[in-house]
Structure formats: structure tokens, C-alpha cells
Write a structure and sequence with these properties.
The chain has helices at residues 2-17, 62-75, 211-220, and strands at 20-26, 38-39, 48-56, 80-84, 100-107, 119-124, 130-134, 137-141, 145-150, 157-160, 168-171, 180-185, 188-191, 199-202, 205-208, 222-226. The chain is an alpha+beta fold. The longest helix is centred in the N-terminal third of the chain and has 16 residues, at 2-17.
């Protein structure tokens, strides 16, 4: 009986902590083959509103969450989105809650998207603080936060995770080059695939992100600092 009680308790915890993504409103649909799903702000006034998705429940798997939102968006032909804050009784916007939020979906012709350049985004997804070095200056990124580097064309930026076996990248943006997005991942331990046996330890990776996913992270992560 005790074991049955434990199983029921675990099931209830999983049930209430599960995440669901719902297409809660459909105003219109649009027939297009666009693969991207970009965040918009100023362009909203020219975009066609299509509908809305709601995320209920928290998940650490941001890639999975985005893939679920992406599928719902493409069901109605959306190629752009914006966060729709919940409102207080007085009409003011509530603080963002990662366990429950809404996203408005739109269609906007690609040529009407505003050009975005001159910035480098660094996201930290770990449960612990992430220490990084940018041009030999140290920074600490809090869990689920990001920072924006305002880049200068032609200037070299060296970014490293400051750890043994960690990664380092060098970036030299050109004038007018599109924004770039990277994620700082935490330590990874995985089995050795060489046939010798044992474990491979990786203390930190810097991973390039696709723009659609990165712009989704920018609405669910907290901006920490400008560079």
C-alpha cells in the first residue's frame, strides 16, 4: 500500500507540473510556406493578427516548448509573434510568469520585417550562474537570462566559458550583418563513444542558435545587462 501511495504521489506531481500548449484563439488563417517564426514589435501595426497560443505549466526544455508553439503557429499560417501580457484589474501588465503566458500570432510579409543588426545575444540556460569572459572581461549570467552586446563592425570579440575544457569563439561582425545568437550551456557528462569506455566531460559549450528560437528565448528569459 505504501508503494502504491508513492506511485500516486509521483503521478500527481508529474500531472500538475506537466506543460501544455494550446491554440486558444483563431481569428484568421494564412496560406504561406514561410519556415521562420520571428518576434515583432513595431511591425505589429502592419501585421495580420491570426490567433493566440497559451502555455500552461513550466518546462526546462525550452526547445521542446518552442517546437510545440511553432507547430500551433504553422497550423494557422503564422510567421511572426509577440508576447501578450496578462493584465491586472487596473489594466497594467502583469509580470511575466514562465508557468503561464500567452503569445499572439501574426502573418507579416517578409519584406516588411525590420532589419536587425549590430547585436550579439548570449543566453544562459543553466540552473546555475554561468561565468563567461568577453574580451578578457568577466561576466556572470544568471540562470535563464541573457545579455546583449552592442557590436562595432570590424571589432574582434572573443567569448569563452572560462572553464577547463570549455569553449571559446571569436566573432568579427561586418557592417550591416544580422544579429547573432548563442547559448551558453552548462557542464555535460556523457559516455565515451571511442570504444575505450569511461566518461567524456565538457565543462561548457557555446552553441549557435537559429533566430526564431533565439527570439522566443528573448521573451521568456530575463535580460540581464547590455555590454
Amino acid at each position: 500500500m505504501k508503494n502504491i501511495g508513492i506511485v500516486i504521489l509521483v503521478f500527481c506531481i508529474q500531472l500538475f507540473s506537466a506543460q501544455n500548449v494550446y491554440l486558444t484563439k483563431v481569428e484568421k488563417t494564412n496560406d504561406n510556406t514561410d519556415k521562420f517564426l520571428y518576434k515583432i514589435s513595431n511591425e505589429i501595426k502592419e501585421a495580420q493578427y491570426l490567433g493566440e497560443v497559451e502555455v500552461q505549466g513550466f518546462s526546462k526544455d525550452d526547445a521542446l516548448t518552442f517546437s510545440l508553439i511553432y507547430r500551433k503557429a504553422k497550423e494557422i499560417g503564422a510567421n511572426t509573434f509577440s508576447l501578450k501580457p496578462f493584465e491586472n484589474i487596473d489594466g497594467s501588465s502583469q509580470a511575466f510568469n514562465p508557468s503561464n503566458y500567452k503569445i499572439s500570432l501574426y502573418y507579416l510579409p517578409k519584406e516588411k520585417l525590420e532589419s536587425q543588426s549590430g547585436h550579439l545575444y548570449l543566453f544562459a540556460s543553466s540552473d546555475k550562474d554561468q561565468k563567461i569572459s568577453i574580451n578578457r572581461k568577466d561576466y556572470t549570467l544568471s540562470p535563464r537570462s541573457y545579455m546583449i552586446i552592442n557590436t562595432v563592425p570590424g571589432e574582434l570579440y572573443t567569448i569563452s566559458t572560462k572553464k577547463l575544457l570549455g569553449s571559446a569563439i571569436k566573432i568579427q561582425p561586418k557592417s550591416g550583418e544580422s544579429n547573432q545568437y548563442f547559448q551558453i550551456s552548462s557542464m555535460k557528462i556523457k559516455s565515451d563513444q571511442s570504444g575505450v569506455g569511461g566518461l567524456n566531460l565538457k565543462s561548457g559549450d557555446i552553441i549557435g542558435l537559429e533566430k526564431s528560437f533565439a527570439e522566443f528565448l528573448s521573451i521568456i528569459y530575463k535580460i540581464q545587462a547590455d555590454f
